[in-house]
Amino acid sequence: MQLYDCEVRLGGSLMHTVTKNEVTAPEIMCLRAIHGGDAVVNIRPRRNDRRAHRDEVDRLRKTYPKAFAEVFGRNHIERLPQKLDGVGVTEEVEEAEEDGEE
User: Which of 5, 9, 31, 38 is deepest in the core (most CB within 10 A)?
Assistant: First the structure.
Protein backbone atom coordinates (compact mmCIF):
# COMPACT_ATOMS: atom_id res chain seq x y z
CA MET A 1 0.00 0.00 0.00
CA GLN A 2 1.26 3.46 -0.88
CA LEU A 3 1.78 5.71 2.15
CA TYR A 4 1.41 9.49 2.06
CA ASP A 5 2.14 12.52 4.21
CA CYS A 6 -0.58 15.18 4.18
CA GLU A 7 -2.17 18.09 5.98
CA VAL A 8 -5.72 17.87 7.26
CA ARG A 9 -7.81 21.00 7.64
CA LEU A 10 -9.91 20.09 10.65
CA GLY A 11 -13.53 20.64 9.78
CA GLY A 12 -12.27 22.23 6.56
CA SER A 13 -10.80 25.20 8.48
CA LEU A 14 -7.69 26.88 7.07
CA MET A 15 -6.82 27.98 10.61
CA HIS A 16 -6.77 24.49 12.14
CA THR A 17 -4.51 22.04 10.38
CA VAL A 18 -2.81 18.83 11.44
CA THR A 19 0.03 17.08 9.66
CA LYS A 20 -0.47 13.33 9.24
CA ASN A 21 2.45 11.15 8.24
CA GLU A 22 2.37 7.80 6.48
CA VAL A 23 -1.38 7.50 5.94
CA THR A 24 -2.91 5.14 3.41
CA ALA A 25 -5.20 6.06 0.53
CA PRO A 26 -8.25 4.58 2.33
CA GLU A 27 -7.39 6.64 5.42
CA ILE A 28 -7.28 9.80 3.30
CA MET A 29 -10.71 8.87 1.94
CA CYS A 30 -12.01 8.54 5.53
CA LEU A 31 -10.44 11.87 6.52
CA ARG A 32 -12.13 13.53 3.55
CA ALA A 33 -15.47 12.06 4.62
CA ILE A 34 -15.00 13.51 8.12
CA HIS A 35 -13.51 16.93 7.34
CA GLY A 36 -14.71 17.64 3.79
CA GLY A 37 -13.69 16.68 0.29
CA ASP A 38 -11.09 19.43 0.02
CA ALA A 39 -9.84 19.27 3.61
CA VAL A 40 -6.90 16.91 2.94
CA VAL A 41 -4.18 18.87 1.14
CA ASN A 42 -0.49 18.76 0.29
CA ILE A 43 -0.62 15.02 -0.19
CA ARG A 44 2.89 13.73 -0.77
CA PRO A 45 3.71 10.10 -1.61
CA ARG A 46 6.31 8.58 0.69
CA ARG A 47 6.85 4.82 0.50
CA ASN A 48 5.11 1.53 -0.08
CA ASP A 49 4.12 -0.65 2.85
CA ARG A 50 3.28 -4.35 2.82
CA ARG A 51 0.60 -4.23 5.52
CA ALA A 52 -2.10 -6.85 5.29
CA HIS A 53 -5.41 -5.76 3.79
CA ARG A 54 -7.35 -7.24 6.72
CA ASP A 55 -5.16 -5.36 9.24
CA GLU A 56 -5.81 -2.04 7.48
CA VAL A 57 -9.56 -2.67 7.34
CA ASP A 58 -9.58 -3.46 11.07
CA ARG A 59 -7.46 -0.40 11.93
CA LEU A 60 -9.65 1.97 9.92
CA ARG A 61 -12.87 0.49 11.32
CA LYS A 62 -11.58 1.08 14.86
CA THR A 63 -10.13 4.54 14.19
CA TYR A 64 -12.88 5.98 11.94
CA PRO A 65 -15.95 3.74 12.42
CA LYS A 66 -18.60 6.09 11.01
CA ALA A 67 -16.45 7.43 8.17
CA PHE A 68 -15.29 3.93 7.18
CA ALA A 69 -18.90 2.69 7.01
CA GLU A 70 -19.88 5.79 5.00
CA VAL A 71 -17.05 5.42 2.48
CA PHE A 72 -16.73 1.63 2.20
CA GLY A 73 -19.96 0.24 3.67
CA ARG A 74 -20.57 -1.66 6.88
CA ASN A 75 -19.89 -5.08 5.39
CA HIS A 76 -16.83 -4.14 3.36
CA ILE A 77 -15.21 -7.22 1.80
CA GLU A 78 -13.55 -5.82 -1.34
CA ARG A 79 -9.91 -4.82 -1.51
CA LEU A 80 -9.16 -1.32 -0.30
CA PRO A 81 -7.54 1.06 -2.80
CA GLN A 82 -3.77 0.66 -2.74
CA LYS A 83 -3.04 4.25 -3.81
CA LEU A 84 -4.75 7.51 -4.71
CA ASP A 85 -5.57 8.20 -8.34
CA GLY A 86 -3.59 11.44 -8.31
CA VAL A 87 -6.44 13.61 -7.05
CA GLY A 88 -4.86 16.14 -4.72
CA VAL A 89 -1.45 14.44 -4.79
CA THR A 90 1.48 16.83 -5.07
CA GLU A 91 3.17 15.50 -8.19
CA GLU A 92 6.37 17.55 -7.91
CA VAL A 93 7.36 15.73 -4.72
CA GLU A 94 6.64 12.35 -6.28
CA GLU A 95 8.86 13.15 -9.27
CA ALA A 96 11.63 14.49 -7.06
CA GLU A 97 11.59 11.33 -4.95
CA GLU A 98 11.79 9.14 -8.02
CA ASP A 99 14.81 11.11 -9.25
CA GLY A 100 16.48 10.79 -5.86
CA GLU A 101 16.05 7.01 -5.72
CA GLU A 102 17.89 6.33 -8.99
Answer: 31
